[in-house]
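Letters spell out the chain; backbone shape is given numerically. Both lines appear below:
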Amino acid sequence: MSPSRLLTLAFLLIAAPVWAQAPTPLTAPIQDKPPIAATEDRPVVEDERPDFQPLRPVEPEEAAPAIIPVVPAAPARPPIAPPLATMPPPAAPLVAHAPAEQPSLMPVIPAWAVALLLVAGAMLSGLLGVVAARSMRRAELNERRRSVAASLAVEMETRRLAFDAVPLPPNVDAGVSFVSAVISMAGIDCAFRAAQGSLFLLAPPLAANVSVHYAAVQRVADFVKGQSMAAAVRMLQANRLGGHPCPDAGAMREAHVEMAAAFRGLDKVILSLRALQR
């Protein structure tokens, strides 16, 4: 087969389903016109024949006129117009209306009264603020006083127990132990150094007793240390090798007496500090 025939056959095969699905045109069947019935106004007209003779119609007898009763006509009703489709009224433009002023129910307060009320309110708020600040400051100081008293009470109690363990001179061994014990006891002052800026929170007599105790112990420790250094220098001058550079027995007794004076009445100070912790 030639290419043209193959192309035509392929086109027919493709278009056949489309033609099969295409709707067929509807043609109305031709109907014969119904015969026209003969009426009085429209007689049936017959075709003329050669032997047709027209007949003279018979004149009808004069009939008496019929009496037609007159019926009063009903009043004509006015024509009713068909209801028109009611259209919604156009929306009114959104206009921001100012609120109507309502009569004030409160009496008008003069300007001087308003100013006086403002001044009084400011003074009252300032007074309340000062009172609140003072109460907060008082609470803070009370808390600091409790902490200072607690730390000092614990430290002074430790120093008192350490002084009870200090040996008495005059022998050499006791002198060496006395020097080391006094110098070590004087170094227990961490709480006092931390609380030096808060001693004003304590009562003046109590703060004075605490300061005097620490100062006296430190003075005795410095004295004992100096005496030990002097003894060491004397040992070097005398070319004495070995032994401990102990101060004189009289110097150590004197230092012990001063130390006992520093610890006299310390129990009352500790009791007062513990009372402030509550």
The CA atoms of residues 2 and 247 lie 144 Å apart. Residues 111-164 form the longest helix (54 residues). The two ends are 125 Å apart (CA to CA). Residues 116-276 form a domain with the Four Helix Bundle (Hemerythrin (Met), subunit A) fold (CATH 1.20.120).
